[in-house]
Structure formats: structure tokens, C-alpha cells
Write a structure and sequence with these properties.
Blueprint lengths: L13 H13 L6 H13 L5 E5 L2 H11 L7 E5 L5 H8 L3 E5 L10 H7 L4 E4 L11 H11 L2 E2 L1 E2 L7 E2 L2 E2 L6 E5 L12 E5 L2 H11 L20 H11 L2 H18 L12 E2 L5 E4 L4 H12 L24 H9 E4 L7 H17 L2
Parallel strand pairs: 2-3, 2-4, 4-5, 6-9
Antiparallel strand pairs: 1-10, 7-8, 7-11, 9-10, 12-13
């Protein structure tokens, strides 16, 4: 049988290993010069035009970003339900309430009309997710936020290098979080990077990640230990030198799949959008789960279901809200391998498998 094609595959090379060894030899393992350099290089590489703050995970980035923006008990933040639970969790962890809105069925990102319908007198912000690597409709959401006096935050966990109208994701909101988890388009092993729009938000983020201190033993707020280590930052710095090439490969792989797949709905790319294909997500209207099972058992092709249980139906939230496009996406979406390790033979096997299964209805 052909080798298994996994749905995701971290890429760690000799350069990353050498960078880690360099830090280990230095004896400076905690947050230090590597973290500082990584923050500066990340902001420059992705043309964010603002400061970045490194943290120990993407979830920490969202949580501390919200706290640093003044979000807390009694507030509401509008988020998509069709995303990973960290988006809603981060709001809840501040003491605020996540309010769920529906998605655009083409991009899987927040639908501005649904967001507007969800605004109440307690709403303080809107936090879109640039899902699967496709930018959310930021111009419409920003206009909506401005009209109602709300803050805009960005969950850019999956969207390193994505853009809309020439403007990079991560440059619009009061803050934006990029995840550096191993399966993301680039990694630091574990970690997150937060871009910030103003010096005060940056200062608060740096306080919250470091036990509430700028200077040792002079705690200003009740903070956390959410620091990134120099070991992780060293990995991230090397990955920054490779991510553009990996993104180009993802885009070429996606182009091939979209040109050759039949019987399923390939990803939509909005006008003016640069999609970085963290996931290549199709719709399978009938028996998505059976389709995924047959892909693996008959063709040795992996896939991912992101996200079969919408956040509003998770036990911590359990909201009774009507989100028809979210529910439909949760039933139909299936992500195919698009990562840089998929070679031409692999792409052709994915096409053969998907087209054959689509013809017979799995």
C-alpha cells in the first residue's frame, strides 16, 4: 500500500536543531534575547507595522490580549462558533461572555450581518477568526465596530501571511494572535505571538505574561507565567526564514487540488484575499464521516474534521442559538492534506481518491 498521507506534518530541520543547541550551550533558557529578536523579526517579516509580544501559547495570547484591552466581567465579545474552542474559552477566562454569531458559508469566517444582529448594550468587541488561513471580512467588521463603538480583535492563529486588499492579517485589530503550535504554518514548538496596536496594550501584555512585573518584585497587576522560552523562540526564528516557501507550496498544492477535484466544493477565495491554506477544506454534503473513513481505509489518505462540534454546543457554553451555516459547516467540512510535505504523487492520489469517492457517494 502507498505510504500514509497525514493531514498535517510539522517540518523541523537541522537548522532548528542547531538553533536549540546554541541556546542550550548559552545557558540562557528562559525568556531572553532570543525572544526579543523573534518578536522584532516576526513583526518585520509579516509587515505588521506594530510591536509583537511572544507568549507560551496561542490561547494565552488571546486571553492576555483581551485582558490587556480591558475586557472583563459583565462584557460580551462576539465570536464565531465554528472554530477551535480556544476562541470562546479566552473570552470566558476574562470573566466576559462569548456571544456566538454565524459564518459566511463561502469563507467559513464571521458573517457581518449575523454579528450586527448579536450586538447588545454589553458588547465591547468583535473577535473574528481568519479560519483555515483565509482572512475574515475585516473591512465590513471594522465598519460595524466603528459604527457601534466596539473594539476589533483578531484570532489569526491559522493565518500567518494571509492578507486582504494588500493589508496583512494581524495589522487591523487592537491586538491579533498568531499560534505557533506544531501543526500551524510555522511553529516554535509551542507558543503564540501577539501583535498590538498601541503602546499601552503592549505594556499590559508584557505585564500579564510575566507575573504582573516589568521590574522584578514590583508587581503592578495580578499576572500569569505565560512567557516564551528562548529555546522556543530560537526554533521560531529559523522557521521565519522558511515559512514563505512553505506557504507558496501550500498555495501551489491548493491550486492543483482545486483544478482537479470533482464532486465536492473546494475552498473559496474572496476577491483581494491571499489564502495561506493552513487547511484545504472542502464540503462533503452527504456522509462526510463515511467519506473520511473511506479516504483512509481505501486510499491511505488522512483528513481532518475541523470542527464537528460548534462552540455554542460545547458543555461549557451550551447556548441555544440559531446558527444554520455553522451547523451545516460542522456536518460537511473536511480538510485534505495540503502541507508542504505532500508531493506530486500524493496530490494525484488525493485527487483520485476524492473524485472516486464523490462519484460513488463514499
Amino acid at each position: 500500500m502507498n505510504d500514509f498521507i497525514p493531514p498535517a506534518k510539522p517540518l523541523i530541520g537541522d537548522e532548528e536543531r542547531e538553533a536549540v543547541d546554541r541556546v542550550l550551550r548559552s545557558g540562557m533558557l528562559a525568556q531572553g534575547p532570543e525572544v526579543k529578536a523573534f518578536e522584532e523579526e516576526f513583526a518585520s517579516h509579516f509587515r505588521l507595522g506594530r510591536a509583537c509580544v511572544a507568549v507560551n501559547s496561542g490561547t494565552s495570547g488571546l486571553h492576555l490580549g483581551l485582558l490587556s484591552s480591558g475586557v472583563g466581567a459583565g462584557d460580551e465579545v462576539i465570536v464565531p462558533s465554528f472554530t477551535f474552542a480556544a476562541t470562546a474559552n479566552s473570552v470566558a477566562l476574562t470573566g466576559a461572555t462569548p456571544v456566538f454569531a454565524d459564518i459566511d458559508p463561502r469563507t467559513f469566517c464571521l458573517d457581518p450581518a449575523s454579528v450586527e444582529a448579536a450586538i447588545t448594550e454589553r458588547t465591547v468587541g468583535i473577535m473574528p477568526v481568519h479560519l483555515y488561513g483565509h482572512p475574515a471580512d475585516i473591512p465590513a467588521l471594522r465598519a460595524l465596530a466603528d459604527r457601534h463603538g466596539l473594539a476589533l480583535f483578531e484570532d489569526a492563529a491559522q493565518a500567518h501571511g494571509a492578507s486582504l486588499g494588500g493589508e496583512p492579517v494581524g495589522s487591523w485589530g487592537r491586538f491579533a494572535m498568531f499560534s505557533l503550535y506544531p501543526t500551524k504554518n510555522m511553529t516554535s514548538g509551542e507558543g503564540g505571538m501577539v501583535s498590538v496596536a498601541d503602546p499601552e496594550t503592549e505594556r499590559m501584555l508584557r505585564l500579564y505574561r510575566n507575573q504582573g512585573m516589568e521590574r522584578q518584585y514590583e508587581n503592578e497587576v495580578v499576572g500569569f507565567n505565560c512567557r516564551m522560552t528562548d529555546v522556543h523562540a530560537a526554533i521560531g526564528r529559523v522557521q521565519l526564514t522558511k515559512v514563505d516557501g512553505w506557504t507558496a507550496t501550500r498555495q501551489r498544492n491548493a491550486e492543483f487540488l482545486s483544478a482537479h477535484l470533482d464532486g465536492v466544493t473546494p475552498p473559496h477565495v474572496a476577491e483581494g484575499a491571499v489564502h495561506v491554506y493552513h487547511q484545504y477544506t472542502i464540503r462533503v454534503p452527504e456522509d462526510r464521516d463515511g467519506f473520511a473513513k473511506a479516504l483512509k481505509e481505501e486510499y491511505n489518505v488522512g483528513s481532518g474534521m475541523f470542527y464537528p462540534v460548534p462552540n455554542h454546543r460545547l458543555k461549557p457554553f451550551g447556548h441555544d442559538v440559531d446558527l444554520p451555516e455553522t451547523e451545516r459547516a460542522a456536518r460537511e467540512c473536511l480538510s485534505l492534506p495540503v502541507h508542504p510535505s505532500v508531493d506530486q504523487a500524493g496530490l494525484e492520489r488525493i485527487v483520485e481518491a476524492v473524485n472516486a469517492l464523490a462519484r460513488v457517494g463514499a
